[in-house]
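hey all, quick one before standup. I had two proteins in the batch that finished overnight and I want to keep them in one place so we stop losing track of which output belongs to which input. First protein below, input sequence then structure tokens straight from the run.
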Amino acid sequence: MFVEIANVKDTEIELKIREEDISVLYIIQHELLKEKSVDFAAVIQKHPLTNEYQMRVTTKRKDPMEVLQDASASAQEYSKDLVSMIKSAIRK
């Protein structure tokens, strides 16, 4: 995954992301939207034939980079739990 900060303000950050699957970004977006301090979180694919995406996060008062890091960590834990549940279901 290659991430570039395209724009950053006090309560907003915009990222350009390459070479990642959009499903991972949707999980992060879902975690962001669960946070009460997040006003807006979205991911778009620039073109259907490329792996280039744009993510924008707007918060009420919190630092958007901090909120994004927390959501990424939460998404990682969610993914680990999902893998664990799948492995235990396969063993049965």
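OK second protein, same deal, sequence then tokens:
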Amino acid sequence: MQLPVNPPLLPMLAKRVSELPTTGSWIFEPKWDGFRALVFKDGDEIFIQSRDEKPLSRYFPELIEPLKSQLPARCVLDGEIVIAKDDRLDFDALQLRLHPAASRVKLLAGQIPASIVFFDLLSEGVRDLRSTPFEKRRHELKSILSSAAPPIHLTPETTDLTVAADWFRRFEGAGLDGVIAKSIDSVYETNKRVMLKVKHERDCDCVVAGFRWHRNGDGSAVGSLLLGLFDKSGALQHVGVCASFTQERRKELVEFLAPYRENALVDHPWKEWASHDMRIPGGLSRWSQGKDLSWEPVRPELVAQVEYDHMQGSRFRHPAHFRRWRPDKKPSACTYEQLEVVPPYELARIFAGRS
């Protein structure tokens, strides 16, 4: 491909905030629950790239011809691949598409076809639009998709805060994650958290670096997964565990994690914690009351999305709840930056009455 913007390219990201911004000039959009996708088109050549720079085209063959026929001859668009089923988004059905067998992918593409929702334009023709203000990029995107037909869609937009708040309340029932806010003057900055997102629940993508056996499993059931996030220095910090599994799922996890246990300690970031002389994730603490908290390492290659209530310091206050695997995300992208943090000013306000 010979485009003004060529793959591989990391997409622009969003920072989590607690509420929609009420000052400034913003364009609000629904937050889609699917696979982030950058689409590169150069004539008849189509390349669909995931948020972590992996090719997605082979997993969604039903999108190739519509993209060829409906997009401009040379362009790069940012969007989200989704599957709608029974009037709501179905992320589980989407994950099934990441299958190594082409025959299985083709079957699923026919049974439950995917759609793609676009929300940004990075280039068109010979023009690189990344330095163009978002309001203008959005106007051009709307123009080139004015006659688009399913499975290609343009995401809704509004500049009205009241409408955006209404979307936040109503769209949750359709499986959308929340609302995205984009400054009208913002340029497209790859791999930077420039946009704002307001979501219905606190969730976090974590690296799975180990597990503990279930107390009644006798080595045949997983009790909890050990979770990690990368800090600013690049070190993987232990942030807590998730343990919300059915008994059946606990047994399935034993087989699922088996390949990742092979040679797990060779380059493991928590290798030093294998020493009983150190405070380790599986070690005893004054709160454990003698419980066996030994742990089994796994290679830190899996990413799990978990739900949590709040942070205490740099760790989850309570055990998190497992939501789903994130095969579309690199472990290195699991950082503390994605978390909602209470600013010190807000904490000062809480204690103001004691002064």
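Flagging for whoever picks this up: The mean pLDDT is 87. Residues 115 and 301 are 29 Å apart (CA to CA).
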